[in-house]
Amino acid sequence: MAILISDVGDSLILNLVLLSLGFLMLIKGADWLVKGAGNLARSFGVSPLFIGLTVVAFGTSAPELAVSLSASFNGLGEIALSNVVGSNIANVGLIIGISAMILPLSVESSTVRKEIPFALLISAAVFTMIAFRAILSLGFVKE
């Protein structure tokens, strides 16, 4: 069956319309989330900062959670793990990196002494587990 140029053009236009519609819905949903979180904070007498750090943080992590859960339920644990690792790399590399390029960041001494070494230790442990699993799957070492 031949694909006509007009068919490709129609599906491209439809996809662009759906992409634009999804983007607009994403922006409106984010706006509702932030306004709702602020209203929730006011109604419970909770600091808006606390709500921002919990509810909004969960809202921004929800898509990654959905992808990881979907991958796990479909037996694709590697995708779930890669999603978590990739998200952390993007958050650290892009968000903190770009922020630091715009304005120098002040770092507490406890962060340098405790939190950064702990994060590096956990990263090394995850890398070691992934590497060991890859070695097992290649058959170099028997389980």
Secondary-structure blueprint:
Blueprint: H1 5-44, H2 48-73, H3 77-102, H4 109-138
Helix pairs in contact: 1-2, 2-3
Structural class computed from helices and strand pairing: mainly alpha
Write the element-wise H/E pattern from the N-terminal end onward: HHHH
Helix tally? 4
Q: Termini, distance in Å?
A: 49 Å
| Total beta-strand segments | 0
Question: Tell me, what's the shape?
Answer: extended
Mean pLDDT: 78
Q: pLDDT below 50 for ≥5 consecutive residues: which ranges? A: 1-5
Proportion of residues in extended strands = under 5%
Q: What level of helicity do the residues show? A: over 70%
What does this structure look like?
85% of the residues lie in helices and 0% in strands. The chain is mainly alpha-helical and 143 residues long. The longest helix has 40 residues, at 5-44.
Q: How would you summarize this macromolecular structure in one to three sentences?
A:
This protein has helices spanning 5-44, 48-73, 77-102, 109-138. With 143 residues, it is an all-alpha fold. The chain has two domains: 41-105, no CATH class; 108-143.
From the structure above, extract its key features.
disordered N terminus, 143 residues, 4 helices, mainly alpha, extended
